[in-house]
Amino acid sequence: MNYGGKISGEMQKSIDACIESYSCCEQAIAHCLKQGGQYVDMMMMGPLMDCVDVARACADMIMRQSPQALEMSATCARVADMCAEACTTMNSDPVMKRCAGICRTCAEACRSLAGVRA
Amino acid sequence: MNYGGKISGEMQKSIDACIESYSCCEQAIAHCLKQGGQYVDMMMMGPLMDCVDVARACADMIMRQSPQALEMSATCARVADMCAEACTTMNSDPVMKRCAGICRTCAEACRSLAGVRA
Amino acid sequence: MNYGGKISGEMQKSIDACIESYSCCEQAIAHCLKQGGQYVDMMMMGPLMDCVDVARACADMIMRQSPQALEMSATCARVADMCAEACTTMNSDPVMKRCAGICRTCAEACRSLAGVRA
Amino acid sequence: MNYGGKISGEMQKSIDACIESYSCCEQAIAHCLKQGGQYVDMMMMGPLMDCVDVARACADMIMRQSPQALEMSATCARVADMCAEACTTMNSDPVMKRCAGICRTCAEACRSLAGVRA
To answer: In tens digits, what is the pLDDT along chain D, a chain of 118 residues?
Structure first.
């Protein structure tokens, strides 16, 4: 990729998945803070915050077609997978379960774009 | 509002409108940078960047039910209106036209939540 | 203010104070998550997160001289004051005490720029 | 690294360098938009925006000691180097020259933390 090129369908899919992922993780963070207890454990909040930061940066970089967009996608896939795993441990809470699913989809789209294996 | 309360339907509507608005403005910024010329004029980029910053902060603050969420909504309504106006000057470009519409919707949702008149 | 004007000394002071405030609050959030317990209470994390969001948006808007920069400064002054108050409740922790002081300075700079009284 | 560990002196150095880098690039973006012309070319704005996004995410991830912080540091080193190079092409402008220097320092700190060669 290089700045200013055309956005392919596969790139747009990753952009959309990243945006959905970070806005969903942001809502999950607000939800966790309201719940307290194990919800605000670093092992839960850490992956959610990483996923917000990385998915947002990744979406922006693919939009701009940054030369570093693909390595960011590979990182984003790993971060979103970790976040999905953390959310899955609270599967009985529908907010967290939904967030796990969205992060999983984001990880798949980014992994496919980056061309790396799981 | 105060931290940790329940999110009403009207609040959720504003959250969704803000998220749609800032992700759409981010894509419009990338689009403008590709086009160059009048697209990268400060009178176009300024409102788009303001709208990204304010709509994102506003969405997060409503999610958390910050005591300052309503005054932020009032500011967001003004910023999104200004951004819609700027985008409308490039109405023949479908990316900018779509962005104008989404920002207008965001402005209405935030104004209604803040309880202020246009 | 209007986009593209010259940045005065008073504006630069607010920009610097906002940047110091949001980066300090971000470090405080990471610190709180490590500590757990009352540190991750919504009444502590909420003001810190608000302050990150608003101070960042405010700094960016003053840099650009957004027409909404002054109302954002007024909001930022209130948010930073609230954050300083929350941090002060943990005054025996040097990280939180330092953060309170930096947020207080940010509130003063923004209030002075916005031309509002405390 | 893993969430919640202690922040070493080397990590703190990278955190500080990333924060200085992204706040300096944000000011450079506002400056470029005011100048217009070649300043708003995608080859100038793209690296500046990438550097804001990546340096911010990187600083936050090191603060939290995210398991992905080191790979983010490696990416940040590359992005900050690219940004420094872009800024250097406008070396006669003191804002851009200063930004080049700060990004270079950030790249070095992140590269050293990530343990990779230039």
So the answer is: 888 788 899 999 999 999 999 989 999 999 999 999 999 999 999 999 999 999 999 999 999 999 999 999 999 999 999 999 999 999 999 999 999 999 999 999 999 999 965 4
pTM equals: 0.92
Is there a contact between B51 and B70 (Cβ–Cβ < 8 Å)?
Answer: no
Nearest Cα of chain D lies from the Cα of C18 at a distance, in angstroms, of: 10
Selecting from B15, B27, B64 the residue whose C-beta is nearest the C-beta of A63 gives: B27
* Look-up of token digits 């309170």: C100
Q: Which residues of B13-31 are buried (b: 16+ CB within 10 A; e: fewer)?
A: bbbebbbbbbbbbbbbbbb
Three-class secondary structure assignment of chain D: CCCCCCCCHHHHHHHHHHHHHHHHHHHHHHHHHHHCHHHHCHHHHHHHHHHHHHHHHHHHHHHHCCCCHHHHHHHHHHHHHHHHHHHHCCCCCHHHHHHHHHHHHHHHHHHHHHCCCC
Cβ(D7)–Cβ(D74) under 8 Å? no
Find which of D33, D34, D48 to mutate to test the B interface (most B CBs within 10 Å of its CB).
Answer: D33
Task: Read off the tokens for B19.
Answer: 């998220």
Cβ pair C68:B82 closer than 8 A? yes
Please give the Cα distance from A76 to A74 (Å, whole number): 5
The tokens describing B105, both together, are: 């919707």
Residue A82 near residue A47, CB atoms below 8 Å: yes
ipTM over the 0.95 cut-off: no
Judging contacts by C-beta atoms under 8 Å, the chain A residues touching residue C42 are 33-34, 36
pLDDT tens track for A12-62: 999 999 999 998 999 999 999 999 999 999 999 999 999 999 999 999 999
Decide if A23 and B63 are in contact by the 8 Å CB cutoff.
Answer: no
Cβ distance A43 to D3 less than 8 Å, yes or no, reads yes
Select the residue from D34, D58, D64, D95 to test the C interface by mutation, using most C Cβ atoms within 10 A: D34
**Residues B100, B90: Cα–Cα separation, whole Å:** 9
Contacts of D25 in chain B (CB under 8 A): none
